[in-house]
Amino acid sequence: MKIKTLVIAPYSGLKELVTQLAKEQHHLEVIVEHADLKEAIPIIRKYEQDDIQFIVSRGGTAKLIREYTSIPVIEIQVSGYDILRALMLVKDYRQQVELIGFPNICQGVVSVAHLLDMDIPYTTIHSQDEVDDAVQLAKNHGAQVLLGDTVTVRTADKHGLQGMMITSGKESVLDAFEQVIRINDILVPSQNDRIISIHTGDTTVSFGQMVAHSKIMQKTIEQATTYATAPKPIVICGEKGTGKRFLASCIHNVQELAGGLKEVIIPQGARLLEGEVDSLHSIQHSRTMVIKGLDNLTIKDQQVIFSVVKERLSYPSQQVIFIFTRHPWELIEQGTLHSDLLSLTNHILRVPSLEERKEDIEEYIKYFIGLYNSKFGKQVVGMRGEVMSYMLGRGWEENISELKKWMKELVLSAEGYYIEEAQLTQLDESSQPQRVQSPIDLSKTLNEIEKDIIQYVLQEEGMNQTKVAKRLGINRTTLWRKLNENK
User: Fold this and answer.
1) What sections of the protein cross the membrane (predicted)?
2) Do 27 and 53 have their domain in common?
C-alpha cells in the first residue's frame, strides 16, 4: 500500500516540481496543494479526515503546520545547492541585497555566503507577522533586493522592492520523499505502541448542526447543554461512530469564552511517557481538554492523568471531557478504568446508536447527499424508495461513520439524479468482509497445528505481527522465534 502524503507547496514553482517528481515515486501517493503559511491551515483541516499519513512542506509553512496537526510533518530543507544557486544570481548585483528569512534559511545562507566571501546583511524572523516590519526596516537601510522565502518576496513586492526567492531544487524534494519512506518504515511495525497524540479540536460546530429528530437524541442534547456550564468533568460514552467527538465540540462552544479545545487521543497499547505528561500540562491555556481512550492506559498511568485533570479543574472556566466507547461503570467493573473517575464526576452522557434513533437516518441521508454533491460536483437529489427502505432497515454497526462511508460511495457512483437499487447490490457485496478459509487440519502434529494457527491469524490480521502476538497471547519475540523455527 502506498504512503498517502500531502505536499503543501508555498509557491507555484514548487508545486510544479513536486508534481513532476511524484510521478516517479512508486511508494508514495502524493497530493499537492499550493498554500503559504496560514493559507495552509484550512487545507490541513480538509485532508485530516482522508487518512493522510505525512505532510511535506518547507520553511515557515512547515513550522506553522506542526502547530495545527498531529500528522508527522516533513520539511523540505533548503540545501546548499539551493542557497548556492540563489547567491550566484545576486553575487554581482550592484543594488544593495539583504536577506530576510526564518532561522533555518538565514543560517544556511550566511554559511554559504561566507565561503563565497560575500557579506549579506540579514534579519531573522520567527513568524509571518514580523515580515512587514523587517522589510520596512531593510528598505529604510537602503536595501533594493530582498532575498528570502515566499512571504519575504510577496512583502517586498508590496513595498516596491525586488524580491528574490531561494527556491527548492530537485535534490531537496527527493530528500524529503526519502525521509517520508524511512520514517514510515519505522512507524508502521509499531502502530499498537504509538504514543499519545494531542491536536486542536473543532471549535466551529454547535448543537444546531446535530440531527436530532428522535426524542432520545433530543434528551441527550438537553443533558449536554446543562452539563456544559457545570464545574465538573463530563463523560461521553457510546458505540463507535455515534458522534461523540462532535458532541464534545458542541459542549465546548456552549460557553462563548476565550480559549481553544485540545483533543488528547490515547490509542490501544499507548504508554504514558514523561514528555507526554509535560505536554498535558502545557495545554492548560486551552479552555477544554477532551481525553479519548483513557481506558487504553494502565491503571497507574490513568492516575497520572487524573492528577493533571484535578490540577486543571482548580482554574476557573476549565472543562474536561472524557470519551469512551463503553459505559464507564462497565470499564471499571472490567478493571480497565480506575474508579477515581466517578469521584471526579457523575455527569455521564450516553450517545445513542443509530439503531436507537432510526427516525434520524433519513435526515442524515439528505445531509450527506448535500455534502457529497458539493464535494464531488454531483447533482443527486435523492434515492429511490426501495433504496431508502433498505437504508432505514439495515443495521449500522459503526453508526454514523458507516452511514457516511456508504453515502459517499452511493453519491460518487450515482449516474443520474437518483441513487438506484443496482448501486446497493454492488456496494453491499464489496462491503462484505473477505474471510480467510481456515486451513487448520487437526490430524497433523501439535507443532504443525501451531504453525498453521499462526499463519491463519497472520492472514486475518494483514501480516501485522504486533496484532497477531496480542491475539495469540504471546510477545513479539516469541512470535518471531516461532515463525523462524525450522526454516
Assistant:
1) none
2) yes
| Cα 332 to Cα 34, 326, 336, 364, 470, distances in angstroms | 49, 10, 6, 34, 22
Find residue 324's DSSP bridge partners. 237
Cα angle 284, 202, 33 (rounded to 5 degrees) comes to: 115
For residue range 54-88, list pLDDT tens digits in order.
999 998 899 899 988 888 899 998 888 888 888 88
Instruction: Judge if 176 and 234 occupy the same domain.
Output: no
Which of 326, 352, 378 terminates a domain? The answer is: 352
pTM above 0.85, yes or no: no
CATH number assigned to the domain comprising residue 48 = 3.40.50.2300
The amino acid at residue 56 is V
Phi/psi class of residue 102: alpha, beta or left (left: φ > 0; alpha: ψ in -120 to 50)? beta
The contacts of residue 67 (CB under 8 Å, 6+ apart) are none
pLDDT of residue 194: 47
- Whether residue 436 has pLDDT greater than 70: no
Q: Are residue 208 and residue 329 in the same domain, yes or no?
A: yes
Q: Which one, of 326, 337, 323, 340, lies nearest residue 263 by Cα?
A: 323
Residue 151 lies in a domain: yes
Across 463-482, b (16+ Cβ under 10 Å) vs e yields ebebbbbbebeeebeebeeb
